[in-house]
Design goal:
Helix content is 29%, strand content 32%. The protein contains 8 helices and 14 strands. It has helices at residues 22-35, 58-70, 85-94, 127-139, 150-157, 194-205, 208-211, 307-328; strands spanning 12-16, 40-46, 77-80, 100-105, 110-115, 120-125, 147-149, 182-192, 216-218, 232-239, 242-255, 259-266, 272-282, 287-298. The longest helix has 22 residues, at 307-328. 36% of the residues are buried.
């Protein structure tokens, strides 16, 4: 479960993804600082690095250290006013290499962050600021594609939940579920003919069964594109007053002239873990069916208490899967 992170301007949180080259990291940190300057009320920079300061910033390091010494008290954190040219230049020079940097808005809300010698970043960027940062990265010779949302970054950090991955066997007509799971399987007749087959197949592969039953999928698929194995998404549902975000990975897709299917498994974190598959079948007489298979059991940690509530939600949504496709047919 997670939440969409945004500050009071509607800006969304982005970061530099793992594996980015140094030129990309540096350009993103400095580009975000410049793009957000008008919204920053203060910047805190730790005048300390995990590595040797690069030669081209050592003059600025000495200036920052002299400012610290003038305060006549211990500490490594220097408060800067981004409206002051010298302060802003110090922040620009040192931020990619400092162990800790934080920029606050006028309301005292963090909107810019660069820690651990640039290896941990987070920027609350408006759409205009985001375009500016991507342009700055590209001009520096970096990879603008490494600037990703925090939610996408978080998805990539998660492992598949224990025991999931392949248990729904969407390639088989006969299902023998593994033990230790709450099992559900239901099949409904959708209709007959090519149009029904093609419509149902497209819906399965593009998360249409989910979205038409009340879920939202983040990131949304581009029109006409199918989900692919290995892709990760947030499936978002409302459970009473709660908004539950379920991190998942597509573990299998099948496309044949008689069967189309998508199976996904949960990643670590949600109150219910397991796997679900949507399978569209076409028989020799042209009849089209939808089969939904699921394996579930309670997750771990603080969300385990939500398991009874999410089981109720599952029953509601499974009924919607079937009703939605029937109404479309």
């Amino acid at each position: 479960m997670g939440a969409t992170a945004a500050d009071d301007t509607g800006a969304r949180w982005l970061c530099v993804d793992d594996g980015a080259e140094r030129v990309t990291v540096d350009a993103a940190i400095r580009g975000a600082l410049m793009a957000q300057r008008s919204r920053l009320a203060s910047v805190e920079i730790d005048v300390l690095s995990d590595e040797d300061w690069p030669p081209n910033v050592r003059v600025v390091v000495r200036l920052a250290e002299s400012r610290l010494a003038a305060r006549r008290r211990s500490g490594i954190s220097l408060s800067l006013d981004p409206r002051v040219a010298e302060d802003f230049d110090i922040a620009l020079a040192l931020s990619p290499f400092s162990i800790g940097c934080t920029g606050l808005s006028a309301r005292g809300t963090p909107i810019w962050n660069a820690d651990d010698t640039g290896s941990s970043t987070a920027f609350a960027l408006t759409s205009i600021e985001e375009r500016t940062v991507r342009s700055a990265i590209a001009r520096a010779g970096g990879d603008a594609g490494k600037l990703v949302t925090l939610e996408a970054h978080e998805l990539r950090q998660r492992e598949l939940s224990d025991g999931v991955g392949g248990g729904t066997t969407p390639d088989r007509d006969t299902w023998r579920p593994p033990s230790g799971w709450r099992v559900d399987e239901r099949t409904v007749h959708l209709g007959s003919g090519t149009d029904v087959w093609q419509s149902a197949s497209a819906a399965v592969l593009s998360w249409g069964i989910k979205t038409r039953s009340g879920f939202s999928v983040d990131p949304p698929l581009e029109p006409g594109r199918s989900a692919l194995p290995g892709e990760r998404y947030w499936l978002v549902a409302r459970v009473g007053p709660l908004r539950v975000r379920e991190p998942v990975e597509v573990v299998e897709t099948i496309v044949t002239h008689r069967r189309v299917a998508l199976a996904y498994a949960t990643l670590e974190g949600p109150p219910v873990i397991g796997e679900e598959a949507f399978i569209v079948g076409l028989d020799a007489d042209g009849a089209v069916t939808l089969t939904v298979r699921s394996l579930t059991r309670p997750g771990q940690g603080r969300w385990r208490a939500l398991y009874p509530l999410t089981l109720l939600a599952q029953r509601i949504y499974r009924r919607r899967y079937v009703e939605t496709r029937r109404h479309d047919s």
